[in-house]
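Dear colleague,

Thank you for sharing your sequence with our group. We've completed the structure prediction you requested, and as agreed, I am returning the results in plain text so they can be pasted directly into your records. Please verify that the sequence below matches your submission; if there's any discrepancy, let me know and we will rerun it promptly.
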Amino acid sequence: MDFREETPEAKRERLRQEELKGNPMGTFGNGINRAQFGSLSDLVGGLGWKGTGILIMLLLIGYVIYKLVF
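Please find the predicted structure tokens below.
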């Protein structure tokens, strides 16, 4: 698709994807903030694979600590 024929929605999405690829850890806060008002897919999409991995690790560590204490 030529950029001149691109719809405004497609252009916004393309620019958002380029920003996410260029700054994956900088979008961590955006992903967390979006999770407050969006769905789980919004959270995972905003965090990327590194942020999703960190989130899963934090949940697992929290669960293990919970089971050890209680």
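Summary note from our side: The chain has three helices and no strands.

Kind regards,
the structure core
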